Amino acid sequence: MQIQKPVVAILSVVLALLARADTVTFQEQALGTRIGSTVEVRLNGKERPNKLRGQMGQLDNKAFDLVSAESGDTRSIPFGQVKSMKVVKNPPQAKPIEPGPTLEATASAIPKGSLVEVRFTGKHKPSWLRGRIGEAGSQEFQIQVFQSGKIDVQTLRFAEVESVKPVDSLWVQSPPAKVGHGIGIGVGIALAAGLVVVIVAVIVYVTHMG
């Protein structure tokens, strides 16, 4: 059939997109790397040295801080220049934070940049999230989360939070094995779904024309 080759080609693209859907971007990997972890970074381009090693620091959606283990200097590394990144050594697990008399006290006692899990009260959707905790005030606190393919800062009110506690990982289960300049899971699935619709439309059209 004449339709066979186009359908096979589109299906190949769909499968490729779905295979990339579990790819962790460098932003998400860096967000999930605990501060103080020793990481090895390889850079794109002709800049030398193109392999750096240091400790993970603070970050935003565009870059992350790498603290030299030798000099203690901090260098901002744009994600666009990263070719590969891997954790060489994680710091010792932090001691559990004793819950304070209030959520405000508990959040303030957690070091800035620590990975935390937040659970919400009532019918809040989602009912929980994980990310890096930021500034904490008397009525609200900030948390960096990976959402819609980028690192986003959310401000949460203590009135809508049931609990906040430190965790060792950004992921409830083990993180996806692949890391790169990947597309987000939602984007990949949406594109794949769109291509499936195209396939169906082509099949229907050719069937009617035949």
* Tally of helical runs: 4
Termini separation comes to 11 Å
Low-confidence runs? 13-21, 182-193
Helicity range of the residues? 25-40%
**Average pLDDT reading:** 81
Oligomer: single chain
Please give the number of β-strands: 10
| Biggest beta sheet summary | 5 strands, antiparallel
- The structural class is alpha+beta
What string gives the helices and strands in order? HHEEEEEHEEEEEH
- Strand-residue fraction? 25-35%
Major β-sheet strand ordering: 4-3-2-1-5
Instruction: Report the principal-axis shape.
Output: globular
Radius of gyration: 22 Å
Write the layout of secondary structure elements.
Layout: H1 4-20, H2 26-31, E1 38-43, E2 51-59, E3 63-68, E4 74-78, E5 82-89, H3 103-109, E6 115-120, E7 128-136, E8 140-147, E9 150-157, E10 161-166, H4 185-209
Antiparallel strand pairs: 1-2, 1-5, 2-3, 3-4, 6-7, 6-10, 7-8, 8-9
Helix pairs in contact: 1-4
Could you characterize what this model shows?
With 210 residues, this protein is of the alpha+beta class. Helix content is 26%, strand content 34%. The chain has four helices and ten strands. The strands form two sheets. It has a five-stranded antiparallel β-sheet with strand order 4-3-2-1-5. A hairpin with a 2-residue loop joins strand 8 and strand 9. It is globular and about 50 Å long. The chain starts with a helix and ends with a helix. 19% of the residues are buried. About 10% of the residues have low confidence.
